[in-house]
Amino acid sequence: MTLIEWTPEFSLGVAELDNEHRDMIQIVNRLYQQVQSGRYQTTVIDALEELHTSAASHFAHEEEMMRAHNYAAYEEHYADHRRLLAEVTAMVHQCQDGVDDDAVMAKWLYEWFCHHFKTHDAPLHQLICV
Ligand SMILES: [Fe+2]
Ligand SMILES: [Fe+2]
């Protein structure tokens, strides 16, 4: 089962960033499937660490673009990236401690990607794609 379907609304018109978002959605969906299919703790932790690596690289890329465009909302966007990375690290620790709640994990994964995308990425791309 897929948690987040790629839809045209996720397409922002910058091929590299769109591909990075697709990669992150794939990792999120894989994580969701792993959680649903029996909670193989180390597998989930590995996937969370992969998500952290992929997100850190993507965020650095977006931040570079924001600086290049002198983007007014840079500080808020940058701070939200740091928050997202910290949340992934906190989720790794929760999994290491054996806390498992599939519904909480699914809700968190969905919000983790979609909330930031809608509130920060979409406005950014409206600016840089004009
Ligand atoms: Fe993004
Ligand atoms: Fe972002």
Task: Tell me what the structure shows.
This protein is mostly helical. It is 77% helix and 0% strand. It has helices at 15-36, 41-68, 74-96, 102-128. Helix 1 (15-36) runs antiparallel to helix 4, helix 2 (41-68) runs antiparallel to helix 3 (74-96) and helix 3 (74-96) packs antiparallel against helix 4 (102-128). The longest helix has 28 residues, at 41-68. The chain starts with 14 loop residues before the first helix and ends with a helix. The chain binds fe (ii) ion (2 copies). One fe (ii) ion binds at residues 62, 77, 81, 116, 120-121. One fe (ii) ion (FE2) is lined by residues 21, 58, 62, 121.
What are the SSEs and their pairings?
Layout (H helix, E strand, L loop, with lengths): L14 H22 L4 H28 L5 H23 L5 H27 L2
Bound molecules: fe (ii) ion (2 copies).
Short description:
77% of the residues lie in helices and 0% in strands.
Q: Decide which structural class fits the backbone.
A: mainly alpha
> Helical proportion?
over 70%
How far do the termini sit from each other? 36 Å
Instruction: Examine the secondary-structure arrangement and name the CATH architecture.
Output: Up-down Bundle
How many domains in all? 1
Low-confidence runs of at least 5 consecutive residues: none
Quaternary status of these chains? single chain
Strand content: under 5%
Radius of gyration: 15 Å
Q: What is the makeup of the main sheet? A: none
Compute the number of helices. 4
The number of strands is 0
CATH superfamily: Hemerythrin-like
CATH domain fold name: Four Helix Bundle (Hemerythrin (Met), subunit A)
Morphology: globular
